[in-house]
Amino acid sequence: MIMNKFLLLIDDKEEFKDSFLIEAQSKGYRTAWGRSKQELEEKIPLLNRKITAIILDVKCLLTNNQEIENNNFIGAALSFLDRNYKHLPRVILTGDEEAFTNANNIFSESELIFKKDPTGLNNLFIKLDEFHQELPNRLMTIDEKEILSLIDNSEGRILEFKSALQYDFFYGKKNKSGHHNILKSLAAFSNSDGGVLLLGVNDDKSICGLEDGDFSTLVGGDKEDAYKLLLDELVQTSFGNDFQSNLEAIKFYKVKGKTVCKIVVKGKHSSPIYINMPAADGTISQVLFIRGQASTRKLNDNEVSSYLKNNWPERFNVLSQ
């Protein structure tokens, strides 16, 4: 999937900025603009996951309160990007022949440099389109690091791993009894402080993925969509659609060539979430689960009342007369 096309231009010449924005728009790019290294540092944390590339004037301002271009700008900007956003493609632009020559002498082996003339800009956008084709893979690498970092933290109060939703790896077949364990985890997070559930990860932190597990139990070509629909149905049946308000959008990540599903419970739900549990005599009772330090814990009858009063006082505290 190719994403929307965004650029970040750092150039203190407003006339060039205006003409560049028009040219970029004609090529299908939306462009954010800054006029100094200061603005580069302010804007890049908000934009780095969206933009195809950063375009830097070879001579620019270091801070917004300066009036004269600083020759140290390009070195300072590149050093900042190398330290903090090395994965982001960047190119250098200049309309100054001497600056172009100097930049090539200094950066030709490590940086892409283009002139601010029709030929240079045409070549620039050819390169930007190449960068844009690579953007999904570049972001996937970032996502993979994010998930691996989560896994490195080990299971805890706000993190749990599950190998599957409805597949038994031991017997190699579909097993819907796993539904209960996933719903129990979601309920426990919602009755506590929220948390992250990773599906496709074993307790020992190894990644089993969904391809040979849960995805093999689903029909149709779009396994991710079918998986989300299954989760929607389970949540609706067990908790009601209002529970969706406490879930972030379900996301899938490629980690070491395998698919992992990430479900985020944003925080404590507005009301307690119960799980229906069958008893030996065939009756059904409602049970409250919470998250312990590294596991899901069932509250006994004596603990429930106190927990409800402490965590939803506006609903369950009754003033003594």
Short description:
The protein has 321 residues and is α/β, with parallel strands linked by helices.
Topology:
Blueprint (H helix, E strand, L loop, with lengths): L5 E5 L3 H13 L3 E5 L2 H11 L5 E5 L15 H12 L5 E5 L2 H11 L4 E4 L2 H35 L6 E4 L4 E2 L4 E2 L3 H14 L3 E5 L23 H17 L11 E5 L2 E8 L8 E5 L5 E8 L4 E3 L2 H11 L1 H4 L5
Parallel strand pairs: 1-2, 1-3, 3-4, 4-5, 6-9
Antiparallel strand pairs: 7-8, 9-11, 10-11, 12-13, 13-14
Mind explaining what this structure looks like?
Residues 155-299 form the Schlafen AlbA-2 domain. This is Schlafen AlbA-2 domain-containing protein. Pfam families: SLFN_AlbA_2. InterPro entries: Schlafen_AlbA_2_dom (IPR007421), Schlafen_AlbA_2_dom_sf (IPR038461). There is one protein chain. The model has no long low-confidence stretch (mean pLDDT 92). A five-stranded parallel β-sheet has the order 2-1-3-4-5, sandwiched between helices. The chain is elongated. Helix content is 40%, strand content 21%. The chain has 321 residues and is α/β, with parallel strands linked by helices. The chain contains nine helices and 14 strands. The relative contact order is 0.09. The protein has two domains: 6-150, Rossmann fold, CATH 3.40.50; 159-313, Schlafen, AAA domain (Methyltransferase, Cobalt-precorrin-4 Transmethylase, Domain 2). The chain has helices spanning 14-26, 37-47, 73-84, 97-107, 118-152, 178-191, 223-239, 301-311, 313-316; strands at residues 6-10, 30-34, 53-57, 90-94, 112-115, 159-162, 167-168, 173-174, 195-199, 251-255, 258-265, 274-278, 284-291, 296-298.
